[in-house]
Amino acid sequence: MPIDTATLVIFCKRPTHYQGKQRLAATMGAESAFAVAKALLLCALEDAKIWQGQVVIAISNKQDAIWAHKLLERRHIVIVQPEGNLGDRINSIDKQLRTLGHEKLLFIGSDAPMLTSAHYASALCSLEHKDIVLSCASDGGVVIMANSCPWPDLHKLPWSTDALAHSLEHCCYQAELEVKYIKDGYDIDTEEDLPRLVKSLASDTRPARQQLLNLLQQISLPTKSQGYA
After folding, report:
1. What is the pLDDT of residues 126-181, one digit of tens each?
2. Is the residue at 151 inside a domain?
3. Residue 227 has pLDDT above 50, yes or no
4. Within a domain: residue 64?
5. Would you say residue 34 lies in a domain?
6. Structural domain total, the chain
7. pTM of the model
């Protein structure tokens, strides 16, 4: 049976030491990077808690399934990401969810806490009229990938490069899909991304965002990144 309301799909890893956010760890240290990773995930979950449709947590390791089922008090679906690059994994989960009746999907990661209700509302509105909706990241990637029809083959896209958004758009156009862009955003990959994030969070009253802001203000960063607190 088709599901009318859009489904939020969060791709994430369980925050642990020395897994994920290694570019942050390289300059901030493992403990600080671990703390930031946990706080970033809480921001994504904060959005999931108030999502009007269904929520899917797509985890990277099947051993974390019990952990993932406990992340939200509301009902949600946990799916284990298959092997392959990110394109392969998105294609696979997209296919699984469509088999279950999900027709409109909105994919995010756990590293774009600057996303607001305005981003989500714009994406949902655009999905009513377009096949694909994208919010580009300032580094050439994307922070929202939403679709109202199956994704084309995403395997060959240049994931984790500054050519991703352009290549994704071209891939969709080749598949004769209509693409709509909404307000841009940015994600958190390196320590150099943090000053911008602190400025974004300064006026954000959402509790998890305020917790992240407090954490960033408490962390002692190298001189090159100071001046944002």
Report:
1. 999 999 999 999 999 999 999 999 999 999 999 999 999 999 999 999 999 999 99
2. yes
3. no
4. yes
5. yes
6. 1
7. 0.93
Q: Which residue reads 């642990």 in tokens? A: 16
CA dist 185 and 114 (Å) reads 7
CA angle 108, 113, 118 (to 5 degrees): 75
Range of the domain at 15: 7-216
Q: Cβ contacts of residue 71 below 8 Å, gap of 6+?
A: 45, 57
Distance (Å, whole) CA 190 – CA 111? 11
Can you say whether the dihedral through the CA atoms of 186, 191, 195, 199 is positive or negative? positive
Backbone φ, ψ for residue 80 (5° rounding): -90, 130
Comparing CA positions, the residue from 91, 86, 109, 84 lying closest to residue 8 is: 109
What is d(CA 111, CA 127) in angstroms, rounded to the nearest whole number? Answer: 23
Q: Are strands 77-80 and 105-108 parallel, antiparallel or unpaired?
A: unpaired
Asked whether residue 81 is assigned to any structural domain, the reply reads yes
Sequence-distant (≥ 6) Cβ neighbours of residue 4 within 8 angstroms: 103
Cβ-Cβ contacts under 8 Å for 160 (sequence gap 6 or more): 86, 141
Q: Please write down the HEC assignment for all residues of 38-62.
A: HHHHHHHHHHHHCCCCCEEEEECCH
CATH of the domain at 120: 3.90.550.10
CA distance 80 to 96: 11
Residue 133 DSSP one-character state? E
Is residue 80 a contact partner of residue 14, using CB atoms and an 8 Å limit?
no
